[in-house]
UniProtKB/TrEMBL annotation:
Gene3D superfamilies: MM3350-like. It comes from the Bacteria. Pfam families: PRiA4_ORF3 (PF07929). Residues 363-488 form the Plasmid pRiA4b Orf3-like domain. This is Plasmid pRiA4b ORF-3 family protein.
Length: 514
């Protein structure tokens, strides 16, 4: 009996992916973001018979080619180096892990803005009985989206007609045929779908189901369980389980508690706990109940983050290692060893394996463009900087006054802002790091400053490089275009007055963020 999982390497998107990989049989030059150069994009289009403009600035402007290239890299058909990319010669449909590679390609293709809608449509197709026509698929999907209003708004923000577009994507990936999942599609959906949370779950079962979810997604998925309990009772139950859990599961529990109202008493009850105390005292400080966070709590929480990410993101572990106090690597290793964290030995073992002593933190090179003005700035910033840090940097490099609200929108549609200044449908911009929302070169982030005048910025991660020990970060290394002066429009005027771009002045002002 054949027990190999199904795949769809013969689906149209994967056939195109293989042709794109064939085009890269000889090493081809790539940009800093790992994509073919603009001059080569028309050549690639002709080689694989995809209509492509004679002049195109970036591969993302030809969606079929962009998706095929990303799939080729995600599945191992193409390997991207610092300056060139080359096909690996892999025959994916005949290798032992053909299904896993196909699944990796599917995951890459639906990631970002399309992911939630595409999986929601796939869930509608997976129901028994299967939908009989497109209208029924639309009805089922609409019901699922309306149960989560912000996701419903998100779907129609990025897609003109989301259900047919998602069905078409599932079709070219080999996951669906008409209004039914293929065998490969059903196999993939079972691995890609979010966990189903019920009110009757025990707290341990809940945290186990949510352990691998992004913290924003976990809070959304946990709503049926949380809504079935008073907030104070849910907080107490989650904290009790967190006290005896490993770091990754504990982090999920603490994220859920942080999102609950009326949880102050539950936090107060664990301030003396050796494991939960640092998080509880930080929560109290963030809510004005403490004047400061002890330095040892900051260290403990940094080691906690490292423990959470040991398997999932070793590069992030190294980044956080460099955030610890100490001039030399050995000093920081001593800090970890004396932190009192229950998983410090595992962290030290991992740091040794990762060659922490000779490592350097990651630096993100960002291009920040002010839409409609032709003004842009190139900024170098630590990968572990938060979006709130980035907000302050943008205020500095464009000479804004920070008198208005801001809003980030990540590639997956999640929104972030300063929740201490306004009650917006968003998460805290100080609670997410740049490397989380811009994990790979060419990823983009939208930023709006002043929700009235709407100064729109596009932030692109151009590349990730090791830190230069002689450079102070953040740094602005280039730019062009003058900055408009906010709130300076008059009825008599025809445009905003501007401040001239001055790299030296910007660099001086940035030192306050170092």
């Amino acid at each position: 009996m054949n027990t190999e999982p199904p795949h769809a390497w013969n689906a149209p998107a994967f056939v195109l992916t293989r042709r794109v990989a064939d085009w890269a049989a000889d090493a081809v030059p790539v940009t800093a973001s790992g994509m073919p150069r603009p001059a080569d994009i028309p050549l690639l289009g002709r080689a694989v018979s995809i209509p492509t403009p004679a002049k195109v600035n970036r591969l993302a402007y030809v969606p079929e080619l962009h998706r095929a290239w990303r799939i080729a890299v995600a599945t191992g058909l193409v390997e991207v180096g610092p300056k060139t990319a080359k096909a690996t010669g892999l025959a994916p449909d005949t290798c032992d892990d053909a299904a896993d590679r196909w699944l990796a390609g599917v995951r890459e293709a639906i990631s970002g803005d399309a992911e939630f809608v595409t999986l929601t449509v796939a869930a509608a197709l997976a129901e028994d009985p299967a939908p009989v026509d497109l209208e029924e698929v639309c009805d089922r999907t609409d019901q699922a989206l309306r149960a989560r209003p912000w996701k419903h708004r998100e779907a129609f923000r990025y897609f003109e007609d989301p259900v047919p577009e998602a069905l078409a994507l599932l079709g070219v990936l080999g996951m669906a045929s008409d209004t039914a999942l293929t065998p490969a599609g059903r196999w993939a959906f079972m691995r890609l779908r979010p966990p189903v949370i019920t009110p009757s779950m025990g707290v341990r079962e809940l945290l186990s189901a949510l352990e691998d979810c992004h913290h924003d997604t976990a809070a959304d998925l946990a709503a049926p369980w949380l809504d079935a309990r008073p907030s104070a009772a849910a907080a107490t139950e989650l904290l009790a389980e967190a006290a005896s859990s490993a770091a990754r599961r504990r982090a999920t529990a603490l994220d859920l508690v942080e999102g609950l109202p009326f949880a102050g008493a539950a936090w107060q009850n664990v301030t003396a706990d050796p494991v939960l105390g640092p998080a509880a005292r930080r929560w109290q400080w963030e809510h004005g109940l403490r004047n400061e966070v002890p330095p040892e709590d900051d260290i403990w929480m940094t080691v906690e983050e490292m423990a959470v990410n040991l398997d999932a993101d070793p590069a992030y572990v190294l980044d956080r290692f460099h955030d610890l106090p100490g001039r030399a690597a050995d000093d920081r290793l001593t800090v970890v060893a004396s932190s009192g964290h229950p998983e410090r030995d595992a962290v030290l073992t991992a740091l040794t394996a990762l060659a922490a002593r000779t490592s350097r933190p990651r630096i993100c090179q960002l291009k920040i463009s002010l839409t409609g003005w032709g003004a842009w700035r190139r900024v170098m910033v630590r990968a572990t900087a938060t979006l709130y840090d980035l907000h302050q940097i943008i205020q500095t490099v464009f000479d804004w006054d920070d008198d208005h609200l801001h809003l980030f929108t990540a590639p997956d549609g999640r929104r972030y802002s300063d929740l201490l200044r306004a009650d917006l449908d968003a998460s805290d911009s100080g609670g997410v790091r740049i490397c989380e929302v811009l994990p790979t070169p060419s990823a983009r982030l939208r930023y709006v400053y002043d929700l009235g005048d709407e100064w729109r910025h596009e932030i692109t991660l151009q590349k990730i490089i090791p830190a230069d020990p002689n450079t102070i970060y953040p740094a602005c290394t280039a730019g062009n275009g003058d900055s408009p002066i906010e709130d300076s429009w008059t009825d008599e005027g025809t445009s905003y007055p501007t401040r001239p771009f001055n790299l030296e002045e910007i660099s001086t002002r940035l030192t306050k963020h170092a």
